[in-house]
């Protein structure tokens, strides 16, 4: 009994080291959403006040594949990601909708005026309710929705050229087949 008392902390330590060792190289951006392969949540977002781009609703996601990007003007990674979104739009022509997350309208307008507006529609999610329904952890996050309004892909964090090439474009090409 005495040896067990002294061995227990060592056994627990070895167990924790084993858990950490097997988890150390996992990609934290690979967060599987419970919404994958399910219809996008029902919502309706008004346009960002002062922006000439319309808002959108769940029904607008049907008809053709759509990239939905959750962004905010105060988000530094969103600023870094933005040129990639513009290049993706130019390269693929994909319909792109933006959910402006918890942002003052004048800041969102200035952000898009400065960096360009690749979005066909931008909805104002000032109270973050729609973002919560989409399972957004933080900004930026990007979703690919098929022509039936079903979420087929989610990327947490800013898109990178590697993520676009190895994940997003294959997912998009899979929809066009």
UniProtKB/TrEMBL annotation:
GO biological process terms on file: cytochrome complex assembly
Entry keyword set: Cytochrome c-type biogenesis, Disulfide bond, Redox-active center
Principal localisation: other
Subcellular location: Cell envelope
CC annotations in GO: outer membrane-bounded periplasmic space
Organism domain of life: Bacteria
Single GO molecular function: disulfide oxidoreductase activity
Location of the Thioredoxin domain: 34-177
Keyword Disulfide bond applies: yes
Pfam families in UniProt: Redoxin (PF08534)
Gene3D superfamilies documented for this protein: Glutaredoxin
Family: Belongs to the thioredoxin family. DsbE subfamily.
Protein name: DsbE family thiol:disulfide interchange protein
Organism of origin: Devosia sediminis
